[in-house]
Design goal:
Elements (H helix, E strand, L loop, with lengths): L1 H34 L4 H13 L12 H18 L5 H20 L17 E6 L3 E10 L3 E4 L18 E7 L5 E14 L2 E6 L6 E2 L8 E11 L16 E9 L2 E7 L7 E8 L2 E15 L4 E10 L2 H14 L2 H27 L30 H4 L10
Antiparallel strand pairs: 1-2, 1-4, 2-3, 3-6, 4-5, 5-6, 5-7, 8-9, 8-11, 9-10, 10-13, 11-12, 12-13
Helix pairs in contact: 1-2, 2-3, 3-4
């Protein structure tokens, strides 16, 4: 008797496992539908619609406007054939679906932005970064159970055969119009043929992060420099200081500013001049102290400087240095986002021209390169005497 009970228990357990495995997709679909405030009857209709339009991932209906639109279109066509398109029940259900579609649309534009690669649209342009191989261009052909993309190309050519991408860990960058740049890490599952084209199959990701392109790139460094407090209006920006200034060290540098370490207690909102060399090029950078981190234990300050003026040749020398020492992965990320942003601008311009709309040209001049007449460097009104009187040799290495 006990053996019979055990056998029955095993059979029940196996049946439960089979049912769960067989119907897990449908169970998850109905659970998601209930979370979105649809009734069981409405969810049942949505499930049928998802099957009719052959959504490989039915749950995409709840996160993708593209998938939901396909279902709405099918519902309208079916109700017209059945003569129920004007029925109150049909119209109420359509109104609810359109309201839900709007909710999905707005969710993709809120501060959280995209969260899942399942919400990406077909045709979305991508940039793939394969460590050690650089940046590749691709686009989405189909978004279903997997993300199906065209074979990545670099410099207009296929440099890595489709079969060699299998099992590679990659970073995927994309740019959404009116939103921002995004990045997610994923794995290439396989290569194959889709609609007559060679493609790669990527695993989906629910961890998309904003990757807004920076206005300037900075890198860590350890460069000795001299700092000068500006005490009078500057008229000659190219003047090289011959007298020693306050000794300091640059801890990071960009064309938009720097982070320096100096002896004594720094003060916010004073204007200073930095003089240093990068790769045998003399740099004169006029800056505003934006913030100060003071360490009373060693009586040193880290000053966050915003660049107010720098000559173009000196700015280019800084950029050359930054990109030369920038880690390869960070450099590739910037290249990927720049390419995507440039493509988006080109697409917008083309669309505007076809519509007969004129788009003003944006200046390529960096934000730090303000015309000299747009600002003046004035005498600071308040400077910490301790900072001004600090011995020039006060900055020492930690």
């Amino acid at each position: 008797m006990s053996i019979l009970i055990v056998a029955l228990g095993v059979l029940v357990l196996l049946l439960a496992v089979w049912l769960l495995k067989t119907f897990s997709t449908k169970i998850n679909f109905f659970a998601t539908g209930l979370d979105q405030k649809f009734s069981l009857g409405e969810i049942s209709i949505l499930w049928k619609l998802a099957k009719i339009v052959e959504l490989e991932e039915p749950e995409a209906l709840f996160v993708s406007t593209h998938a939901l639109t396909r279902c709405i279109t099918n519902l309208i066509e079916t109700s017209k054939r059945d003569g129920t398109d004007q029925a109150l029940e049909t119209q109420n259900f359509l109104a609810k679906l359109y309201k839900f579609r709007t909710k999905i649309e707005l969710a993709s534009e809120n501060k959280r932005g995209l969260e899942s690669s399942k919400a990406l649209s077909n045709g979305q342009k991508l940039r793939l970064i394969l460590k050690g191989s650089g940046v590749f261009a691709s686009r989405i052909l189909n978004n279903s159970r997997d993300l199906i993309i065209t074979i990545p190309i670099q410099d207009g050519r296929i440099k890595i055969p489709p079969e060699d991408w299998k099992d590679k860990e990659i970073s995927v960058y994309l740019w959404r119009k009116g939103d921002a740049g995004y990045v997610f890490d994923t794995k290439v599952l396989a290569s194959g043929i889709f609609l007559g084209q060679n493609v790669l199959y990527l695993a989906h990701s629910n961890n998309l992060f904003r990757a807004q392109k920076r206005k300037s790139i900075r890198t860590q460094c350890h460069i000795p420099a001299h700092l000068y407090i500006i005490k009078e209006t500057v008229t000659e920006y190219a003047q090289v200081e011959t007298a020693p200034g306050f000794k300091c060290f640059l801890e990071d540098i960009s064309s938009d500013g720097a982070l320096i370490r100096v002896g004594g207690k720094g003060v916010n909102n004073i204007q200073v001049k930095l003089q240093f060399e990068i790769d045998d090029t003399l740099i004169l950078m006029y800056c505003l102290v934006r913030s100060v981190e003071y360490n009373s234990a060693n009586n040193q300050s880290r000053l966050h400087l915003e660049c107010l003026h720098i000559e173009p040749t000196m700015r280019n020398a800084i950029l050359s240095f930054v990109y030369k020492v920038l880690p390869e992965d960070q450099k590739n990320a910037e290249v990927a986002l720049t390419q995507l942003e440039d493509e988006q601008k080109a697409d917008d311009k083309k669309a505007a021209e076809e519509a007969g709309i004129s788009i003003p040209e944006t200046s390529a001049e960096p934000v730090t390169e303000s015309p000299e007449s747009s600002y003046t460097i004035e005498i600071p009104t308040a400077i910490d005497p301790e900072f001004l009187n600090k011995e020039s040799q006060g900055a020492t290495e930690e």
